[in-house]
Each structure stands twice: as C-alpha cells, then as structure tokens.
C-alpha cells in the first residue's frame, strides 16, 4: 500500500513549502516509500472533501492526516519498527521549542526576504491569492518587501546562529544528536525550501550549516 503526500507545487515542478519538505524528510528517515501528489495552492481546499486548508496532507490507506505535527506523530505511532522521529517525549518538547523559535522570529525575516521570489515561481492561478494574502499579512507590497533586501542578508543569516552554535559546541552531527530526528527534519526542511524558492542563497560555502545539510542528505540516502 503506497503512502501519498499532497505536496504544494509551483512552476517547473518546484516545491515551495517548508512543511512539505519536512514531512518528505521524515518519511525518508523512517524508510517509508511514498509518492507525492502535486497540488496548487488554490486547489488545497478541494482535497479530501475540503477537510484541510493547508498541506502537507498524508494519505495512508484509509487514514488521512493533515498538519505536519499530526503527520509526524502518526508516522511514529503507525510505524514503530522504523527509525523514530522522536526518541523521547522530552525530545518532542524540544522540537516544539525549535519550531516556535523558527516560525515566530527567524522565518518571518526569511519569508519577507523571499516573498517576491515565491510569488514569481508560483503557478499563475495562485499568484493573485498569494499576493493578496501576503501583502495583507506583512502590510506592504511584495515589491516593498523585496526592496533593499541585500542589506538584510547578513542579519537574516545570523538568525540561524543558534543552530550553528549547537552543532559546533555539542560536537554532534545532527540537532537530535548522533542520529537524525524530527528536529533535523524541521531545520533541514527550511533550508531545502529556500533552495527551491530563493534567487539569493541563504547558506554559502564555509558555513557549518552547509556541511550539516550534506550530512542530512547523506543520512537519508543510505
């Protein structure tokens, strides 16, 4: 039985969702075969009887699960004999902290930086909705968000210093320790998302996070 993952799609089959990248990493870590079902942003509301407003949505037989956290919990519950995403309840709590830190501060800067890039690569049918909703959220036009963004680049990169410090000072290959866990799916999912949507790279040669992302990729390729 094949696992299906509804995955946000843009032009040239690019995938502009950090949450979907997160779950694709989680599925790969658990060594679970899956297929992605690409979906346009404005078509999400028509999926599975209109039960969900966002992706990812995972369909495993008769079970349909939305929200990346609920999907992660489901995968560990349904496939306990596969590598775990959460090694303990305490680790799960730390993952919650990581997500709150990222999405309440750091990623607001990142999203603002790349808003126009995302808009320009979306499917034509999705661009008007994206512009309207994001301009309302950020209280500026997409063009205003992009203006002078190079001056904000160093500060945006520095926002990820806690991850660099953790990996360097702990001397561990992954945020979760010696083996990959859900914390790494969260963080690496962000970097893969930026690779997919950004016209300006976030990570540059010599950055410890470049080596970190390569370790994540190597771990999942085994």
From TrEMBL:
<dbReference type="Pfam" id="PF13409">
    <property type="entry name" value="GST_N_2"/>
</dbReference>
<dbReference type="Pfam" id="PF22041">
    <property type="entry name" value="GST_C_7"/>
</dbReference>
<dbReference type="InterPro" id="IPR036249">
    <property type="entry name" value="Thioredoxin-like_sf"/>
</dbReference>
<dbReference type="InterPro" id="IPR054416">
    <property type="entry name" value="GST_UstS-like_C"/>
</dbReference>
<dbReference type="InterPro" id="IPR004045">
    <property type="entry name" value="Glutathione_S-Trfase_N"/>
</dbReference>
<dbReference type="InterPro" id="IPR036282">
    <property type="entry name" value="Glutathione-S-Trfase_C_sf"/>
</dbReference>
<dbReference type="GO" id="GO:0005737">
    <property type="term" value="C:cytoplasm"/>
</dbReference>
<protein>
    <submittedName>
        <fullName>Glutathione S-transferase N-terminal domain-containing protein</fullName>
    </submittedName>
</protein>
<dbReference type="InterPro" id="IPR050983">
    <property type="entry name" value="GST_Omega/HSP26"/>
</dbReference>
<feature type="domain" description="GST N-terminal">
    <location>
        <begin position="7"/>
        <end position="83"/>
    </location>
</feature>
